[in-house]
Amino acid sequence: MHQQIARAIEASARVKSIPPPLPSYIKPLPSNMGPDEMSYLNTKGALSVPDVAVVQQILLSYAEWHHSLMPIVDISSMLHAVSADSQANSSISLLLLQAALYTGAAHVDIKWLHQAGHSSRRAARSAYYHKARVRICLRCTGPNCKP
Fold first, then answer.
1. Which member of 8, 27, 104, 129 lies 3.0 to 4.6 Å from 91 by CB, making a disulfide possible if both were Cys?
2. What are the tens digits of pLDDT across the range 28-78?
3. Cα gap 77→82, rounded to integer Å
4. For residue 7, how many other CB atoms are within 10 A of its CB?
5. Residue 143 has pLDDT above 50, yes or no
């Protein structure tokens, strides 16, 4: 698995893709993450985030269906960070957001998943799962990113 990732990073290094700017409610990625890793994450779609309205609806679904069973995150802080009136005083990690989107996509109204460009609930959950998995495989989950 790690050899496949290394080969994919090398391949993506040949064709540099400029990552899209992350929304203001996302914490900055680790500063020691190199351009090859950024290009790889971008190529795999791990740096893309749905529109804020879609994110809000999926997070509300997460809060309604999953958070009460396992309250391991501060859901009010997450919702405040992505709210329209947030002055960017709070932010959340991209990995945490992707994990919450994966979980919340299980019960959100399908129209929101379609609006995000997914053909089905299964496709949406698979996409969010793989985005988080790529980040974890590169060990880019915190300030000590060491790919």
1. 27
2. 888 878 888 888 889 889 999 999 999 999 999 999 998 787 788 888 888
3. 9
4. 10
5. no
Question: Which sign, positive or negative, has the C-alpha torsion 66, 124, 35, 90?
Answer: negative
> pLDDT of 10-40, one tens digit each?
555 445 556 678 888 999 888 878 888 888 8
- Quick check: 40 and 8 in contact, CB under 8 A? yes
Which tokens in the block code for residue 129?
């799962």
Query: Shortest CA distance to 99 belongs to which of 77, 67, 146, 51?
Result: 67
Q: Say if CB 33 and CB 145 are below 8 A apart.
A: yes
Are 144 and 30 in contact by the 8 Å Cβ rule? The answer is: yes
Distance between CA atoms of 101 and 128, rounded to whole angstroms?
A: 6
